Predict the 3D structure of the following.
Amino acid sequence: MTVAGRSLIVFFLLSRLTLAYAQENAGKQSEDLPRYLEVTPSIGTGAQMTDTGIKQLAQKGYRAIINLRTAGEGIDLAAEQKTVEAARMAYYAVPLSGLEPESAQAEKFLELMKSLNGERVFIHCASANRVGSLMLIKRVLQDGLPVEDALAEAIRIGLRSDTLKQFALDMIMRLRQ
């Protein structure tokens, strides 16, 4: 067997193992961590968590939280940052509109995820819809998942919006070139 053939088999097996891990960990959620999903051993996703949920994430070994919510959503972003930092985790804000997502925000998210590679990271927005969109982009472009598998995973994460789905697919096409 050629090196290319072996590489393809390894890639295929890793893709399937990652998908199996995400499926196995689906449904581990509570009121404090709604829509919680361990996508990989180092990436968790979900909707808006409570202060208790933030503490639970720290106990689970998360080292950073990425918040995709915008200031216009009526959430106290400064209070969340303070709670996250009090739990000894890093806090990052990458505000992304669900109605008019911007490519600059998706690119910032990809850069941040690349810089946090290996750290245990939790990503959230209000409902996990935007999280699913950005994770679709990340999983295809940075992790090498096939689009179909990454889309199925994004839907499990919380992607429901046709606008965000199309945004993610367009970003994948644009950044692959």
